[in-house]
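Bench notes, bay 3.
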Amino acid sequence: MTADLVDVGTDEPLLECVVNVSEGCDPAALSALSAAAGSCLLDRHSDCGHHRSVFTLAGGEDAVMSAAQELSRAAVDLLDLRNHVGAHPRFGVLDVVPWVALEGWPLRDAQGAAAERGPRARDAFARWAASELGLPAFLYGPGRSLPEVRREAWRTSLPDFGPPEPHPTAGSVAVGARGLMVAYNLWLAEADIAKARAVAAAVRSAEVRALAFALGEQVQVSCNLVRPLVVGPAQVWDTVASMAPVARAELVGLVPQTVLDATPRSRWDELDLAVERTIEERLEK
């Protein structure tokens, strides 16, 4: 990312957008999607088993909105949900597009009027995706969680914007406003999916969302740490390890510096954490 997009190291609020795309295997498609995101792209995490990629964008409001739109347009043009096979649930070729309003340094969730940047960007993007891409858009956050939207979409609720039926090749999209979050996978040493599901259910809470997946000959407890300063990577590792041996950890995307600072340095390697994988470090490059 180039420094002219945002004045890092000040109290100016920033925007982060984490675009989850239902493509994790095709190198040519992934290269094209990364190119479409432009200079706001801080990180791309791709997983062929989930058949999913997570694109982390951050910077000034206008720049990030433009980057998210170009990436989303490319995804709808290039990808076809009818050919998609992957372990992760998805709304469409764009699964979820959450917006996060940030401020300060190290970064923290924006407060007061600055916090309204998140819902404002969410609504603007959802309207754009509905009108320009023909995507039904479901909204989530802060009063409606993503799991609720997954359960209710097309069953008990219709889209907030866009057509009343899915796009023929791109499906639909969930667009959210949320706080800082850490996406975090723990691979279990024993390939027992029933055990993994029991572990996921046991760690699920207001601070942690968790699902179990069988990926090839391995199983994974996939977590979203939605309050990572309350329950962070070390705490969720220890909780899972108390119920089943953990083979390895996998950070998906980037981690806020505050979460890294709250984690004992002696455990960073074990937990798949590093300074160079923080949002702040990537913004300063």
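Next record in the batch:
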Amino acid sequence: MQELVVSSPSNIAVTGNACLPAMTQDQINKVEVLEHFSRALCEQENIPTEHLIHGGMYARTVHMPVGTVLTGALLKLPTVLIVAGDCAVFIGEETIELRGYSVLPGSAGRKQAFLAHTDVSMTMLFPTQATTVAQAEQEFTDEYELLMSNFQDCVTTRITGE
């Protein structure tokens, strides 16, 4: 079994210049192990998802309650991730701590794991020509059928047409 270190004093990075780099297959596998473990042990948290398509941009926002562990989809393209709140993020070689408000560049080829120390809101953004949420989801991940927005009623969608 592979081990995923969530946090220890030797691997906490200071935010500010933090980024979300592409991950190796071994690092992605570690997140997948956590994903399968958490599905087997815990009832899945109902995390609201908000979608906005406007001005050639797709924004996807989730709100995580304190104590929630969330594993993201494997992303196929670079994005910007905005995080409001305090959380630990496994980024491949280390776990970083985000506090307050962070705007992070994220590379393609990553699958993060998050642990919310406070209530956390996260918004992922990327440019797109998509006109539907389904198109946008298929653009950013091949794991679109596993996304929580496909399994919950608490989803808000705004498509402005601009």
